[in-house]
Amino acid sequence: MSNRGILSVFKHHGSYGIVGAVIVAIFIPLLLSMIFVGKKKVKQRGVPVEVGGEAGLAMRNGRSTELVEVPWEGATTMAALFEQSCKKHPQDRFLGTRKLISRDFVTASDGRKFEKLHLGEYQWETYGQIFDRACNFASGLVKLGHDVDTRAAIFSETRAEWFISFQGCFRQNITVVTIYASLGEDALVHSLNETQVSTLICDSMQLKKLAAITSSLKTIKNVIYFADDEPASDSNISRSMGNWTVSSFTEVEKLGKRNPVHPRLPIKKDIAVVMYTSGSTGLPKGVMITHGNIVATAAAVMTVIPKMGSNDVYLAYLPLAHVFELAAESVMLSAGCAIGYGSALTLTDTSNKIKKGTKGDASVLKPTLMAAVPAILDRVRDGVLKKVEEKGGYAPYLEGKSDLCSVVELRYLEIHSDLSISVWGLLLVKGMA
Ligand SMILES: *[C@@H]1O[C@H](CO)[C@@H](O)[C@H](O)[C@H]1NC(C)=O
Ligand SMILES: *[C@@H]1O[C@H](CO)[C@@H](O)[C@H](O)[C@H]1NC(C)=O
Ligand SMILES: *[C@@H]1O[C@H](CO)[C@@H](O)[C@H](O)[C@H]1NC(C)=O
Ligand SMILES: *[C@@H]1O[C@H](CO)[C@@H](O)[C@H](O)[C@H]1NC(C)=O
């Protein structure tokens, strides 16, 4: 699959929140082109390597003497990486989710209804706790009757349970099929049929959509859904789902906790993921990714952004069904960072789904790392420009009124505005005072 456009990763260190930030943006395609351009002019940055397979030019980073394949010795699969990292950082924060305080609907002047969320602080679970949950889920899956030689699919928006199910499957060497939550029915039926998926893991919103296509999903036996905060809506789901066994994620965890099953760990060359992303031309295609592929990607990124650790906080909001976010979260796992979940629609204080006057994900989490794609940066830019316009120019920012915009917006200003240096300068002084 392609990483369309520029993918960037920001990292900043700061003893005082966002202040004193250092940003490193890595433009992957840019980097690749630099390797080729830079070769002629300056020192050699890329070294040609023989990888076999199809003819073509394969290069590796000239900084390392060998191909980087694992983040550390022994972490040759996602399952091993996960277990070892959880054992290294048992007490550190790992996955965090914001508490839902209220869900309202506002009606716009044209009569359309918009959902507005009031979200609270992040609630964290440690590496140790998440490891136990993944093990319980894996046992529950087996106990539920999932045949471990068949595949499980995850069809959901990015959230903590996504990552836990994913790791749980690997504990039993189950290949995970990932499907973009935005894909249509045809694409969904096609992907699940092509990979003969027998267990489908989804969020309750997707579950409602499935009811209409039960008859087309012939290979599915079990459906596991992530229950939302409103249990009332769940009671009738199972009745409308034909021959499927429908369970909530929590039920499967409980089942596994009561009936532990020995792990059945994969090896490096086993397929970890079959990833379906948007098929811009016709049906989506599944890309097979081995355990070795994912850990090598995580290892490679760690050589480019070194010194990440348990003080780092990553804001996760891009689709995990895409390799970019999946790789990024695998890097965070390797480095022992905290991952706080959010969404593109709740990212900043001015995001569409955020109730007016309440905080966006970035303001609450104060991440030190986030991944971004151009479409998201455009949204942030629009938010910034709107505020600058409303306040009559950049002056309020120059006066150090940092509360006027969110972390992400400030970071955006820093990168894109000529005035940003002074804005940061002032904030820095204010912050240190
Ligand atoms: C499912 O896949 C089989 C081949 O594996 C194919 O013959 C069949 O037409 C597919 N069905 C659907 C609904 O795509
Ligand atoms: C559940 O289904 C029953 C019968 O099918 C129906 O009478 C009841 O209203 C449903 N309850 C909810 C909460 O949808
Ligand atoms: C349920 O399974 C039975 C027998 O296996 C089959 O005849 C029936 O069509 C299935 N129902 C649905 C809704 O898939
Ligand atoms: C993992 O599962 C795959 C596919 O089911 C199988 O081919 C492979 O041998 C398994 N690996 C191990 C180590 O059992």
From TrEMBL:
InterPro entries: AMP-binding_CS, AMP-dep_synth/lig_dom, ANL_N_sf
GO terms classed as biological process: phenylpropanoid metabolic process
UniProt cross-references to PROSITE patterns, sorted A to Z: AMP_BINDING (PS00455)
Keyword line: Membrane, Phenylpropanoid metabolism, Transmembrane, Transmembrane helix
Domain AMP-dependent synthetase/ligase span(s) in chain numbering: 116-382
Gene Ontology annotations for the cellular component aspect, listed alphabetically: endoplasmic reticulum; membrane
Name of the protein in its database record: AMP-dependent synthetase/ligase domain-containing protein
The organism of origin for this protein: Nyssa sinensis
